[in-house]
Amino acid sequence: MNTIGHFINGEIVNDDQRTQPVYNPATGETQRQVALASRATVERAIAAAEAAFPAWRETPPLKRAQVMFRYKQLLEQHAEEICGLITDEHGKVLDDAMGELMRGIEVVEYACGAPELLKGEYSKSVGPAIDSWSEFQPLGVVVGITPFNFPVMVPMWMFPMAIICGNTFILKPSERDPSAALRIAELLQQAGLPDGVFNLVNGDKEAVDTLLNDPRVQAASFVGSTMVAEYIYHTGTAAGKRVQALGGAKNHAVVMPDADLDNAVNALMGAAYGSCGERCMAISVVVCVGDTVADAVVGGLAEKLAHLKVGPGRESGSEMGPLVTAQHLRKVRGYVDRGLDEGAELVVDGRGQRVEGHAEGFFLGGCLFDRVTPEMSIYRDEIFGPVLCVVRVENLQQAMTLIDNHEYGNGTCIFTRDGEAARFFSDHIRVGMVGVNIPLPVPVAYHSFGGWKRSLFGDLHAYGPDAVRFYTRRKTITQRWPSASVREGSSYAFPTL
Ligand code: NAD
């Protein structure tokens, strides 16, 4: 069976002993193995990245950007192939995979602006014949550790920006769907990136811990579950590194009595069940203001769920694919069982979902719970599956208190026609990304992505302007070139103008 290796210093490396199966979630079959990097393999990648850093640091930003321009073209040329790899290992439907790739390419496009982004700040005459400027210098070797749910987009939130800032990079993608990341690594080489500037190691905790503890690694970007994000943040910062660790989510959508309910129901279907609910921005709770709204929303969602086409991601017409692994399917089903035990009303039960010819696939139909209350585990925990919870409240203030009290604060949205309510909500809600009649308010590449509360550990968000700050260190230089005739005496007072 084919074993997926690592990409180190421009070469595929495949001599690790430990491996793990990679499944096709639509069939349940093991289709490949992935190598799990030992400490020695990871150290080889770090050494390659460190060796490549001095020359890459000196490469002019315009030259770095030119690599990104070529990379964008290659990604577009190979889009179908990349999306096929995503679907075969993650399970999501092909057009969803294409959406993911396109959002990743947008970060590459932003990174093409490297010369502009790295111009720095300049002040002439801060004192007599004194000029001052701040420049943004690369950190050195930086790493990215990424989750299974966006095997291409989330790595691309990180490495294009890290690389154009002059760093060298090591990616540790998810071991559950690693092939697409390896393919986009090869394309970087084809785009002309010098060997060693980008490296990829597959693996698990052993690889991650090696990266976090090695003194040659300067910074780590992480995206994944909150438990691991918190661990990465504490371990990395204790080892003296700069760390941004994006964690889990429980995103609420508020539906106000004046909302366009047909529009809200349509939007909620995609936001809750798209990608089988395996998105950190998925809507997993609908907060209905008033029973009339709740009855209409629940009725509308139930009707649409009856027609949701669940099937293999590669089959045209499929709207929702399988979950990523059998283990994850068991976990999500377990939450549906628990929701019933806890007293929620299961309006639509997806546990009986069958997909013809795919009896062993990891499929679960869309599930809808009504009358969910805040103490239930299906409300508190991130389920990361096609399970939507409806909570009924009486007014906007109750909805906002509910959201503010949740441990996560990644995304949220409000459906309303009332501008005043929307403005109040977006101004005060304690959540990092807010949509108004937009269910998945994922920021575009020239803004930055990140949640609040326990959805993000660290100060800076991912991609966009924050990425330039995260992947560089500010240096401020103050210089004077006095004319040769001017001679100054010593001064023992603190310098002022
Ligand atoms: P995960 O936390 O299990 O894994 C993420 C990465 O961490 C993987 O590369 C994995 O190999 C590594 N890892 C796992 N356990 C580890 C450990 N004990 N020590 C060190 N490294 C470890 O997450 P996942 O299941 O792959 O992805 C889903 C999660 O990611 C969800 O919680 C989702 O909300 C979150 N996510 C968040 C965002 C965001 O932007 N906030 C985006 C996408 C996904």
TrEMBL record:
A biological process term (GO) from this entry: L-valine catabolic process
Gene: mmsA
A Pfam family that the UniProt record links to this protein: Aldedh
UniProt enzyme class: oxidoreductase
NCBIfam families: MMSDH
EC number per UniProt: 1.2.1.27
Record's keyword annotation contains Ion transport: no
Protein's name according to its UniProt entry: methylmalonate-semialdehyde dehydrogenase (CoA acylating)
Annotated Aldehyde dehydrogenase domain residues: 13-477
Organism: Sedimenticola selenatireducens
InterPro entries per record: Ald_DH/histidinol_DH, Ald_DH_C, Ald_DH_CS_CYS, Ald_DH_N, Aldehyde_DH_dom, MeMal-semiAld_DH
Keyword Membrane in record: no
A Gene Ontology molecular function term of the record: methylmalonate-semialdehyde dehydrogenase (acylating, NAD) activity
